Amino acid sequence: MIAIYPGSFDPITLGHLDIIKRGCRLFDDVIVAVLRNPNKTPLFTVQERIEQIRLSTRSLPNVEVDSFDGLTVNYARIRGAGVLLRGLRVLSDFEHELQMAHTNKTLDDRIETVFLATSNEYSFLSSSLVKEIARFGGSVDHLVPQHVALDIYRCYAKNLPASNPIVMDASPKVNYPTVDREV
Ligand code: ADP
User: Fold this and answer.
1) Positive or negative torsion for Cα 4, 95, 104, 8
2) Would you call 89 a catalytic residue per the annotation?
3) Which of 17, 89, 148 has the most ligand 1 atoms within 8 A of CB, as the residue to mutate?
4) Could you tell me if 144 and 12 are in contact, meaning their C-beta atoms sit under 8 angstroms apart?
5) How remote is the CA of residue 127 from the centroid of ligand 1, in Å?
6) Which of 34, 149, 164, 181 is most enclosed, with most CB atoms within 10 A?
7) 128 catalytic per annotation
């Protein structure tokens, strides 16, 4: 059984990673699929996010990372997936996720949505929260993989946390913006 784990992942957090690792034990293959959403202004490009996720999941043999646009169920059909994997944190997640699951069921009733409850330690964690902390100079080392934290600090280079001096002249793989982008 192939599962698609769709989302924005802007950027991937330890909460996402926890869902991916647990999904890997339940399904033969997990495809982490970054949604290309022209209506959002992300901090990282789709390609940057794909690279961050690939690096974070390199020890998991049954994970693939891809991107898609349009309807998730269409993408799932193309990839031969029978499951959409989603994570649930708080009650407010549930309302939105349930609506999406019902909608997707009306579009293709062969594709099931499977929810994994967040692990306790990540129940508060979201990509937006991570960006908000970093934007104001806080440390996010405990919330995202180390290489993602460095990517974020480069984005908000003006507000590097004192506890995280990074070598700013080390040439990054991609050209990161140094201006604040919308969270
Ligand atoms: P989206 O824009 O689709 O919500 P996200 O990247 O924010 O994309 O989230 C993708 C999925 O991961 C969603 O199902 C979300 O509920 C889940 N998720 C996000 N953060 C966590 C977390 N800390 N613990 C468990 N699930 C999470």
Assistant:
1) negative
2) yes
3) 89
4) yes
5) 8
6) 34
7) no
11 near 50, Cβ under 8 Å? no
pLDDT at 144 over 70: yes
* pLDDT confidence bin for 164, thresholds 50/70/90: low
CA 168 to ligand 1 center in whole angstroms: 30
Write down the residue that tokens 């997707």 correspond to. Answer: 104
Q: Residues near 128 by Cβ (< 8 Å), separated by ≥ 6?
A: 183
Answer yes or no: is the C-beta of 161 below 6 A from any ligand 1 atom.
Answer: no
Mean pLDDT for the chain overall: 88
3-class DSSP state of 121: helix
Give every CB contact of residue 28 below 8 A, 6+ residues apart in sequence.
1, 2, 62
The token duo for 145 is 């993989």
Rounded to two decimals, what is the model's pTM?
Answer: 0.86
CATH of domain 2-122: 3.40.50.620
Q: How many CB atoms lie within 10 A of CB 79?
A: 16
Q: Establish whether 16 is a catalytic residue.
A: yes
Answer whether 127's CB lies under 8 Å from 13's CB.
yes
**DSSP one-letter code for 162:** T
- Identity of the residue numbered 140: V
* CA of residue 89 to ligand 1 center, whole Å: 8
